[in-house]
Amino acid sequence: MRNRVTWFCLSTSARMAKADGNAASAIAKVSEWADEHLRLIRNISTGMAVAGMILFARSIKLTSKFSKAIDIPVEFIEKNVKLRGRLLQITERGLEVEHVPITLPFFSLWQKRWQSNGALVLRLAGVELTQSGKTWLQEELKPSQMLWFQLLRRDNSVLDCFVLVNKGGFFNVCINEEVLRQGLGKTTFIEGPRKDSKVYWKLQKKLLQAELKAQKKGRGLWKERTLLEKMFTSSALLIIFTYIPKEALFSQTTGSK
């Protein structure tokens, strides 16, 4: 009986040792194969990572080219996203711009296959342009010039935006403000963002400040304005936007309805 138990223990140990040897051998073979095909594994990993990035970027429309206002997701407008574009021409409707989306390295040719041709029509938000202002835009902005536009509202096929142009280095000029600063237009209330939001408050205040500068210096359409007219335009509105808390202002407005 003792001999049988001894034989069984030895036999089990031998089988376990053989199994361990086979496992170690298999691991060694896999490790050896991985060493020999390390470049292939790295390429596969890189390819999977890039593919994942492309799918993610496409899912959130980062690489999509918008050729019509309706193509732009509602979330982009609600979050006032900034997009890049190339100016095509300036018409009575506004600035016609070709949207230039984010380009992924090594995949620019493929991206072009997905992209459609077309132009977005941009309107300067919060600005009522004079005829001189339209002429100034034609002279200041050139075809093929790159610019950024911050989305504020979609009005059928037209986008109300703040348009930014680079003037060298990190210096950008907001065209909406510059037109008002030169006295080439009047400030209007911005449509799109909620009237009690920080975005609306900040942008509307900037426009009023730009217009006030033109009034003080008598530029453009403000040359012929009387002192009384100047006092009760941008100055009065700017005081409201500067010193009255927006919560109090809009709570009174909504409460009176």
TrEMBL record:
State the membrane topology. Answer: Single-pass membrane protein
**Keywords of this protein's UniProt record, alphabetized?**
Acetylation, Membrane, Transmembrane, Transmembrane helix
Q: Which domain of life is it from?
A: Eukaryota
Q: Which residues form a coiled coil?
A: none
Tell me where it mainly resides: membrane
Q: Which Gene3D superfamilies match?
A: 2.40.50.90
Listed InterPro entries: C3orf33-like, SNase_OB-fold_sf
A GO CC annotation recorded here is: extracellular space
Q: Where in the cell is it found?
A: Membrane
- Its protein name is TNase-like domain-containing protein
Specify the species. Answer: Pleurodeles waltl (Iberian ribbed newt)
